[in-house]
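Sequence in, structure out.
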Amino acid sequence: TTYTTLDVPGSNYTYAYGIDGGNIVGWYFDAGYHGFSYDGTTYTTLDVPGASHTLAYGIDGGNIVGYYTDGSLNHHGFIYDGTTYTTVDVPGANYTHAHGIDGGNIVGRYTDGSGNRHGFLATVVPLPAAAWMAAPLLAVIGVVGKMRRVRRG
């Protein structure tokens, strides 16, 4: 068994959570919380625009999932395709965290309006590229979820 230490340069601490092939994702802390991807050579910081914290947990191909904290301290799941961050929120949830992805399936956890905690399986509904801009959809175990497209700036 071989172990390799993973430390994002300049970070106080680094946590690795997901791996796909030679790509690893996780999060680190310096003056704040940031997601990262690591391809074996280069660390790339992942920050959802406008978020105070971004944490990455899962990767599949070019898609990364995790959660971010907005300015009101609300937690939202996200999927990042290398260009665009898309919010993944279970309807009626106080917070949503996306932890894993495999193909079009995302798993994670959420807290409902009554404070009860649940796991979830979300299946991304494939749409033509132009439709993603007009009406993104997410089916969450038979319930239509909401997604918000956020362009990385």
